[in-house]
Design brief:
This protein has 165 residues and is α+β, with helices and mostly antiparallel strands. The protein has helices at residues 10-25, 31-41, 44-53, 97-108, 124-132; strands spanning 2-4, 55-60, 66-72, 80-88, 114-120, 136-145, 148-158. Strands 1-2-3-4-5-7-6 form a seven-stranded mixed beta sheet, sandwiched between helices.
Amino acid sequence: MIRQMTLEDIRDVQYIALTSWRHTFQDDIPSEVLEEFINRSYSELMLRKQLEKTTILIATDLQGLPVGYLSHTPIDEDGECEVTALHVLPSHLESGYEELLLNAALDLLHSAQRIDVYVDERANELQHFYVDHGFLHVESFPELFEGIPVETIHYSLPVRQPVYM
């Protein structure tokens, strides 16, 4: 089941984020750097702010326990928005939760012209997921993540063609 995040989900989102980030980047980013980033970026205060400014969808398992989430920005004046996070517990990967979350977001964003996402080059499974769902490679660029050089890949999904008058 997919539903909107509530304040009661904050601890679950924090756990999913930390577990997912560890699973994906444990060999590339020191654990203390990851934990510091998660503690800062997924603090209760930051998640409360995200709830005010973005849409956060929660995927729950058959017992109703949160196993993943997706967040996206609102559609801006140019018809663009961004999927800012998609994380599923490693124990529930490849169980369809990623698709359920993305499809729920696409339903909400059906009037967008374009949906962007930025993925670390080492997140191979996530890259394949987005490509398999129609996202197109736009560009790759280097940046720093907590002082560590990374290569970020920008993908975009054209949803609707703009109407020119």
